[in-house]
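Follow-up to my post from last week.
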Amino acid sequence: MSHKLTFSGRISGFFFEVGDMSLFAVRYFREVFRGPYEFRELLNQCYTIGNRSLLLVGVTGFILGLVFTLQSRPTLMEFGAESWMPSMVSISIVREIGPVITALICAGKIGSGIGAELGSMKVTEQIDAMEVSGTNPFKYLVITRITATTLMIPLLIVFGDFIALLGSALVENLKGGVSFTLYFNKVFNALSFGDLLPATIKSFFFGFVIGLVGCYKGYHCKKGTLGVGEASNSAVVYASMLLFIVDFIAVFISDIFFEI
Amino acid sequence: MSKKKSQIIRLGVFVVLGTLLLTAALYFIGNRQHLFTKNIDLYSKFRNVNGLQVGNNVRYSGIDVGTVNSIQIQSDTLILVRMLLRSSETQFIKKNAVATIGSDGLVGNMIINIIPREGSSASIAKGDTISSFSRIGSEDMLTTLNVTNENAALLTADLLKITTEILNGDGTLGMLIRDKRLAQDLKASIYQLKIASTNTSQMIADLETKISAIDMENSAAGILLTDSIEGNKIRHSLTQLVTLGERLNEIGNSVENIVDEIENGNGALSYLTTDTLVVRQLDATLINIKESTKRFNENMEALRHNFLFRRYFKKQERVQRKEAKKEN
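User reply:
Got it. Predicted complex:
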């Protein structure tokens, strides 16, 4: 039985979801500093989120660096500014493209995975069973996953940036005869703490957002197999959207503190 | 169990590698900004820093030796720039070095170039201030270029006016260009000039041949040209000639004065030459003298035949005859 929601109903539904997700986040922060800790599950989740995503992030990052350099090269050559390629690529990747692209990939892979996993657990009443057996499902399922994404996404972004720069260096080496040493020398000449630190700090927020949205959508999944799919899908959509909002706020704040 | 352990090991490797990468990146960036090296501070004062910012590189002879640490306005015309230089490289930078603000390439960041100067001086120490030199900024260059452009526009307008006048045949240049007759005259003149120059060169060649044919040692011309003693004599003679000329000139002047006086009727000569009555009287006197002389001769002849003086005249004849014989 389906019924159409009115416009005001949709608006109030959106605000309800935002408020509920905020409460979910508050609950996370309240529970995360309170024992007992599920370290084994945390490590397990870190492995799943970190190690299992490295290949995807690495390949995407490598291609990103490769393509970015190949596409920018003709334009820079037109101005006789090929020597600026390492500076341009490194600043773009480290500041913005690397963290955002990696986070979006992770939102697609990890966010949807968490949403589907928790959603199916909800549908099959495994979460209820955990509550009945005396295990805190929020601590076991949510805290570990959000913490794991918060810790692993920044590392994945670091790997992604590095591999993207390797891809760019490879193109420069093959097309422009620039040695890897010179390339990375120029990269570190161009970069400053103002580029790396805000990007690293915001990547923790990206990880938190991905884990939070995935867990929230899975944890509040509707009954039935349709609900699992919906939870998985909406986790990706909401996480991606929130990532851009967080990115905008992060850039805005870092502009004040680091004078970008 | 072993699967779990391997998973944890892999996770550990992942975390360690990720952290190392981040740390390395932070270290390299920090190293570029000389955060992990021992530094000394060096100051320089500029009138205009041309957009220099904190963190810009400081170079000594093209090598990065530090960064700009702070930029402070000291007065309305003076800006104090504090630089942090790696202490390991400060021994090479002397106190007489000059700091200039430049650009790293055409569109690069601003940098401070420390340029060494000649002469011996002690190495810089912590807190030293080195002199600065403000180069012309791009804005100044553009201002100058703007003035040059305006001048060029004015010049072009003037040039256009001049060329129009020339094309219309106005003015000397216009006449020179438009007048065909003048052009033909000019052509003819140039042709004559060409002939003259050919003749001149021919003359010079002849002169050279003649000069080379002169016997420099024996001929008079050679002596004149080469002998210094003869040269001195000639110079002396010439001096005398000049003196003589001057004297002749004086004489000439005197003669001129006399002539003037004669012409003006002063003196006896003028009287004689200009008064016709006197000349007529003088002529008559001369005729009288001539007649008197004739009569005197007749009287003398008569006297010779006189017995009183006959003896004396015979004696005179004898003496004359004797002298004539002696001579023969």
